[in-house]
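Input.
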Amino acid sequence: FLATDPLKAVEYYARVASNRLILDDTLLSKKTLDAVHAWTTTQDAVLPKSVYDQALASARRTTARHPLRATFWNDLARLTFLWANETSQPVTQEGIQAAQRAIELAPQRVEAMRTLGYIWAQNGEREKARDAAVATLASVPNQPNALWLITQLDYLAGDESGAAQRAYDVLLAHPEAIESSQLRWIVGLLAQQEAYRKVVDLYEAWGAEHPDDLTFLPNLAAAYAQTGDVKRAVETAIRLKELDPSSAAATDTFIESIR
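Output.
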């Protein structure tokens, strides 16, 4: 259920948590975090508070049982960031301290520094966020999440053109690390600049990495049309109709409009 119904997944995880005999509490905590992440990156509706509370309780239990494991402190920090981002609130002090504790325990690893960067950005501390991203890149050059964070900070600073170009570069170099919400954001910036050839590049990279995702095909067809490549626009629209017959009427209308 994790990929198709994150809420159902959390419901099952909650049942496991209520069992007195938990064979692997760390796995349960990880999976609950995965469910929250899946919801916040794929669903339009706000994550129910009860689901977040279950995940938070699980993360707290895990850090209490394994206080010297940096990865679990980072998971707790990530969870608080996801909720803050989902609800447009600052990250709590608990989340900040969890990320800092993870860094103290494993200063050579970049995961917690990256998380802290996102937390600072969420809380409006842009300079601290940039410092964390730069520190991450010093350890792992071209780390995609850190590059993405810098891109967002550039955008917030008013450099929309530069942010769009850097975001484009990050996605092409690391399509496996980009989420659908980030793709939509980049495409929106590039479309404002009428950079439709770059939009095509991004959708093609996304499709190569996510071949089962049909949702991008209408936009890819439209982007082809915007570049004047009517042949590929029609081919893409026909492919969509074959894979999703329910789109036939809209697809036929689109094809007629560009021929």
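The longest helix spans residues 25-42.
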